[in-house]
Amino acid sequence: VGLLKSQTISALHLFISRSRNVSSLLKPSLLLLGTSRCFPFCAEICIRTFRIDHFFSKFEDRTMPPQQRTDGINDQGMRRVVSTSELSSGSLGSINSDAGTPREYRVRKSKLIGMIDWAHVMLTHAPHLLVLGLVILLGQIVRQVVDDLFGDSNVEWFSYETIAVVIHAIKDLFVRLYVSIAESDGFDIFSPAVKTTALILVVAAWIIRRDNPIYCLSFATFKAPEEWKVDHDQIIEMMRRKKCFTDESLTFMQKILERSGTGPATAWPPGIVQSLHRDDEKADQSIEASRKEAETVIFDVVEQALKKANVKPKEIDVLVINCSLFSPTPSLCAMVVSHFGMRDDVATFNLSGMGCSASLISIDLAKRLLGKGRGKALVVSTEIITPNLYHGNERGFLIQNTLFRCGGAAIVLSNNWLDGRRAWYKLLHTVRVQGSGQAAYECVYEGEDANGERGVRLSKDIVKVAGKTMEKNLTTLGPQILPLSEQAKVVWSIIVRFSMKSLAKFLKQRGAADMAAKVPIMKPYVPDFKRCIDHFCIHAGGRAVIDGIEKNMQLQDFHTEPSRDTLYNYGNTSSSSIWYELEYIQEHQRTNPLKKGHRIMQVAFGSGFKCTSGVWLKL
To answer: Where are the beta strands (DSSP E) in 222-364?
Structure first.
C-alpha cells in the first residue's frame, strides 16, 4: 500500500507539473475526494498541487486584470444602448489614451471579500437547500419508524396496509414528542441522526432569517423616441426661439454644451422640441405637457420593469417615486396606481426636492418600509424637464438649461428570500450623508433672479462642497466594505499624521520653529476601493464630476467608462443616471465584463447638499 501510494503521488505530481490547466481542474476533484476515508492520501496530492501553483505564481501575476472580449467589435468606440442610433462609434473621455488599459491594470483583490461575496451568492440557494433538508429529515423519521416496526422482515412496502401502519406510527411518534416536551423528558425518542439533522436545519433557518436581504429583481430605463433627440445646435436654436436670451447668454450656453461631454443626440421633451417644427416657434410648457412627459417616461419604465421581473402590479406593496422639480396634484404615485390598477392598500411615497441623489434615497426608504415582512417594492426615479426651463440671463441659472435631459428608471425590489434565485442583484449597503452649513444648503438652490425668473442656481462652491460630502460618505461606507489591510493603512496614516503634527506643535512651543518646519507631515491615505469594488456607477452630472472622482479615487479608464458613455448618449438624467450606467455595465461593457459575485458601487450627489452611495452584489 505504501509503495502504491508513493508511485501514485509521483505520477500525479509529474502529470500536474506538465499541465498548467489540469492543475486547476484537479484541485476541486481532489478536495472532494479528500472528504472521504482516503483524506490523508488526497490531502498530500492537494498540497503538492498547490505548491506547483505557488511555483508558477512567481512567473505570472496572480491578480488577473479584467479580461477583454475579442469578439471582433472595436471597444474604442462606446456603444449606445439604443441600437438604432447613428452614434455607435462616438468619441468619449479618454478613449485615445494608451495608459490604464485593462491588460496593463493590476489590483490585488481581497480574497476574504471574494469569499464573502460568494457566500452571498450561495445564500440565494439556501431556501431550496432548506426544503431539501426538511425532506431528508422526514425521510430519516420514516426510516426510524420502519426499522422499529418491521426490522429486517420482508414486507410489501407499497401496500395500503403498510402505508397506513407507518403513517399511524409517525403520528404516535409526534404525540410522544409533544408529551415528552411537556413533561421535560427531552428528545430521546429520536435517533441521533434525526436530532443532528433537525439541529442543522434550525441553525440554517436562523441564519437565513437574520440575513434579511433586499433583492433587485429587475430594472428598466427610458429610451426616448428619435423625435425627442436633438443635437447641440438644435438646443441653442430652441433657446434662441425663446426670444428671451441675449447673444452673450446663448454664447455662454454654447460653450457649456461643448465642454459638457454630452453627445449630439440627447433627449428633450416634445413640448419644447416642437418649437423647432412649428411656424410660430412656440414651445408648450403647460401643466398638461408636463404630465404628458411624466406619463410617457414613467409608464414605459414601470411596464418594462414589471415585465422583466415577472411581477404583476397588484403584487406591489410599496411604491416610491422621486422627481425633484415636478410635484403635481394628484401625485405621480396616484397617477401610477390609477394607470396600472394597483391594490388599494399599496403604500405610496412621492419624494421631491432631493436632486440627483434621490434614487438611492428611495431605495433605502423602500428597504426600510419592507422591513422584515415579505413584500415587493417599486421605485421610480425621473426628472421632468418641460416646466423647468429658465428664461433669464444670469449665468448661475443658465447651466441647468444645458445640463439636464429626459430620462427615467424603474426598479423592482423584494425582500422575500425565495426570490433570491431569480434576482439580478442583492443590496449590501446604502449610505446617505447630508451636508451642513449655509454653503452646502445653497450650492444647488431653486429661486428667482433679479428679474423674477424662476430657475435652479448652481453655486461656484459646488465642487468643494461635493468633495467634502463625498469624503464623509466614503468614510462612513469604507469600514463596511474595505478589506482589513486597507483599513489598517488608514488608521496608521491617522496615527502618523497626528504624531507629526503634535511633534511640530511641541517644537514650536519650545522655540524650535526651524526644526518644526522640517517635520514631514504625511498626506492622508486614500484607501483603494478597487480592492473591494469591481464596477463604479458615478453620477453623470458632467465631465468635470467624472474626471474629479476618477482622479481622487485613482480609477482606471474602464471604471469611468459607463459614466462617460451615459453622459454622452443620454446626458444628465438626474437621479436615474446611475441606472443607465448599471445597464451599460450589465449589457454592453467589454473592457470589464460583469460577472457573478462582482460588486457594483453607485455614487450620486444631490441638492441640500447630499451624497448617497449604494453597493450591490451581482447574483
So the answer is: 229-230, 266-267, 318-322, 347-351
Residue type, 248: E
pLDDT digits (tens, 9 = 90+) for 396-411: 899 889 889 999 999 9
Question: Strand pairing partners for 614?
Answer: 430, 602
CA angle 263, 265, 266 (to 5 degrees): 85
Rounded CA separation 497/548 (Å): 25
Compute the distance between CA of residue 446 and CA of residue 397 in angstroms, rounded to an integer: 9
For residue 427, which of 172, 602, 251 has the smallest C-alpha distance? 602
> Distance between CA atoms of 117 and 96, rounded to whole angstroms?
34
pTM of the shown model = 0.74
Question: What's the distance, CA 338 to chain centroid?
Answer: 30
CB contact set of 48 (below 8 Å; sequence gap of 6+): 9, 12, 13, 16
Alpha helices in 326-417 (DSSP H): 332-340, 358-370, 395-403
The CA distance from 144 to 195, in Å, is: 12
Q: In the 8-state DSSP scheme, what is residue 523?
A: P
C-alpha cell at 116: 464573502
Q: Find out whether 420 and 128 touch, Cβ atoms under 8 Å.
A: no
- CA dist list (Å): 32 to 1, 28, 43, 295, 507: 22, 6, 10, 56, 64
Strand partners, 279: none
Number of other residues whose CB lies within 10 A of the CB of residue 174: 11
Question: 301 — phi, psi (to 5°)?
Answer: -70, -35
Higher pLDDT, 537 or 104: 537
How many CB atoms sit inside 10 A of residue 458's CB?
Answer: 18
In angstroms, how far apart are the furthest CA atoms of the chain? Answer: 103
Cβ–Cβ < 8 Å for 573, 405: yes
Helices (H) and strands (E) in the chain, counts: 21, 13
Rounded CA-CA distance 363/285 in Å is 30
Q: What would the pLDDT profile of 249-271 be if each residue is shown by its tens digit?
A: 999 999 999 988 999 999 999 99
Which positions ≥6 away from 220 have C-beta within 8 Å?
300, 301, 302, 304, 305, 308, 409, 410
Q: What is d(CA 271, CA 106) in angstroms, rounded to the nearest whole number?
A: 49
Tell me the Ramachandran region of residue 151: left when phi exceeds 0, alpha when psi lies from -120 to 50, beta otherwise.
left
The answer to whether residues 597 and 559 touch, using CB atoms and an 8 Å cutoff, is no
